[in-house]
């Protein structure tokens, strides 16, 4: 079977696996004591229901109780059950509909035969459906635990707006996102293989990694079919990387001296270019990558950590392009970094415009719940994080009567910045160190560091870095074929130990906080060891590829 045949076979089997899990989950939710569906899915759907059904025009602009926008919050009979989007644009839309010129009995200052009056009424008649749609937008943040972008509730709204839409509409979208992740993995692998001399990148077995480790892996399939929206974020992340590699191919994946065409040439052998004239290989992919990164950060804040990897990657790409096409051996720092500055400006502007647009529709609740909450969040419940115990103890400790030094230390320990700042600094260091050599590996290591040191994380957070494994796996060379199996078993065993103590705490009401925290430390150490082992295998792969390329010359 050829490569294309294998890929479509894996896609078909992956779809079948997810369909089976969806059917099984529907049965389990109806008949079993323990539901299959994740509690987050109920939160998503509550937000979607509020978005669609809790700001009906009959209860707002068409209600005799509604006279001004403030009545939605001050009038008890309205505030009790009406939950409208609090942005400026919906408020203006409700005001316009309330003062509908087509239904107004007041005489106009313009004569009825006036062309201006007829044109304005025709324009309003055409735009009235849009005003109605915007004015009836609900507030998903009326659901107390909804902490996501309102765009997520918006794309799940068909389940509540369309009669024939199935209740598992959101799960279907998430499962399709899971399949799309594998397609993007193959796209990235194909792009890298076409740009480099590393023979292992184009080996047939590279096709099997996304199929075996993702499409046929029950872990990501179960996460998606239980109702987690993480697959949508992963699609955006992989899409951004795929487009960025298409626009700016990696230049040092197997060492700069192994890149075809990178041998020094005499200035007379090729036309010299001005560094200011050099652009990217694909302009559409360039702007698309910035847009997808901005959208990914909007959906989840964590992809912002990839900024340092992108800057290092673009600096390397630019440096090699100037050396090859301009004949400048030591380009200036400005010429090297200008591309990274441009990408950061484009992505930052797109992110700002996107957030501004969402804020204009949903107002302050969006800022408070979808942005600030995740920066200041502290969860005292037990989770994989090594910070959970200190957060739990800090919540029950009264430092008001303690000495000043104790109060200061308590404030530092209880502050979200105590974990956030070191976490970001570590991610930035990894990005600037590895990003110029291997963009995908750098993003993968950054994600492991971010998750392992996060103040709160659960099992679905592992997907954030597992999605890179089928791509990175092609660039790893272990001393033994059993080493990856050993590492996977070690990672699973560390989780199993943690889950054992968590079960005794949660379901048997036993005081296992200390062994549970020690298990979190063990899981952290395991992830650090996994990263170190993979970096060693990656360096070994690079050396082998350089040697193989040198022998072929």
From TrEMBL:
It is found in: Endoplasmic reticulum membrane. Keywords: Endoplasmic reticulum, Glycosyltransferase, GPI-anchor biosynthesis, Membrane, Transferase, Transmembrane, Transmembrane helix. This is GPI mannosyltransferase 1. It comes from Malassezia japonica. Mannosyltransferase involved in glycosylphosphatidylinositol-anchor biosynthesis. Transfers the first alpha-1,4-mannose to GlcN-acyl-PI during GPI precursor assembly. Required for cell wall integrity. One of its GO terms (biological process) is GPI anchor biosynthetic process. It holds the Pfam family Mannosyl_trans. Belongs to the PIGM family. GO terms for cellular component: endoplasmic reticulum membrane; glycosylphosphatidylinositol-mannosyltransferase I complex. It is an enzyme of class 2 (transferase). Pathway: Glycolipid biosynthesis; glycosylphosphatidylinositol-anchor biosynthesis. One of its GO terms (molecular function) is alpha-1,4-mannosyltransferase activity. It is a multi-pass membrane protein. The chain crosses the membrane at residues 6-24, 168-189, 231-248, 284-315, 336-362, 462-478, 485-503, 515-538. Its EC number is 2.4.1.-.
